[in-house]
Amino acid sequence: MKENLEVTLKQMIHIIHRAINSVDKRLLNHGEKVAYIMLNLLKAKGNYSNEDMLKICVISIFHDIGAYKVAERDKLVDIDVKTPFDHAIYGSLFIKYFSPLPNLYNIVLSHHFTCKYFKDKHMDIISKEGMILSFADYIDRVYLSKKELTKDFIRNHAEEYSNEYIELLLEADRKFNFIEKLIDKTYVDELYDFFGTRILTRDEVVSYSKMLAYSIDFRSEATVKHTILVEAVSYQIAKLCGLDEKILSKIKLAAALHDIGKIAIPVEILEKPGKLTDEEFEIMKSHAIIGYEILSDLNIDDIRDIGTFHHEKLDGAGYPFGLKGNQLTKEMRIVAIGDITSALLGVRSYKEEFSKDRIIKILNNMAKDNKIDLYITNLLIDNYDFIIDEAKKQASDLMAKYLNITTEYKQLLKKFS
Questions:
Q1: All domains of the chain in start order, with CATH
Q2: Where does the signal peptide begin and end (predicted)?
Q3: By the number of CB atoms within 10 A of the CB, which of 99, 194, 276, 403 ranks highest?
Q4: Using an 8 Å Cβ cutoff, are 137 and 77 in contact?
Q5: How far is CA 178 from the centre of its chain?
Q6: With contact defined as beta carbons under 8 Å apart, do 324 and 369 qualify?
Q7: Alpha-helical regions (H) of 258-327
């Protein structure tokens, strides 16, 4: 990332929005409206700082993020269906373990609780902001279904909620005239101008970018495991190359983001238990240019290029741009080799982990054919056991955390059922 180049929360949300919308446009557009309702409700309450409102509104935009995993998307926009909790549980765990706002996970967890249904249940985990979010979510779903949002309609159709929430909504509208903006769609600029007031630190940019990277979990568990190992292997290679801490951090982030374009690839291709057809392979290849486009306009073009050029080859035979030779920096070459090594080490339904000898042979042949960097390849081969052992140690904590989500999800689902 270029020095002294500011990245705003607005830019970061736009980039995450762009990526996840490539799966299904409905949920985050709904999230924007819910976030706007939340912003006005919180302002009307008057006891939240700007920083608190920013964080809660970010969570509000992504409150349905778990639905990409649990396939409830069609249920969410139907207010006549019994409210689903699966996506709220999974989404809250994703926020808890893979977002910059882990302490706010219970807002997402409780966003389908209502005063009527959960009055005397699960008070240990209910968040007051989660209850407000539940109300904001309900109001938008009512509007989506009925295409009506008058004050009388709100009073007559919010029976699941106490008068406290209804009066808060009406007070917020009296102060800020926000319902009209919600209906005529002029709210979007106001919401994003609010996000634009917050400049992100370098660490926050990294943290939000990793949230984006791990959102690929909604499409393919194998891809997440691969990404974790690419990051670790690339980092170990870069350390042995003697690169400084700034570049090491850049390589870790780029490696974490290298396959983000796969969020737009159909699951049946990502998870196909066998060789792809020529047509399927062309679709799979598109993840590189999709990732490039997702990460553009965020003032991290160098990180974008290191990550998304991992299929370029020194002889120009790679993709997405057919770059070659000196067009590929040392950082790009390291991540490319980290990607290949992780893929060969990976276990899939159609392959076991390749042996050390087989991996070394493949890498040697690619280097001799001028596909990948010879010096970096030899460095990896000469230090193979050390690099792979250290990489697996580095990846193990994150992998355990990722795999633990499934266990915790089942426990919470059982508790609420």
A1: 7-200 (1.10.3210), 219-406 (1.10.3210.10)
A2: none
A3: 99
A4: no
A5: 29
A6: no
A7: 267-270, 278-285, 287-294, 301-308
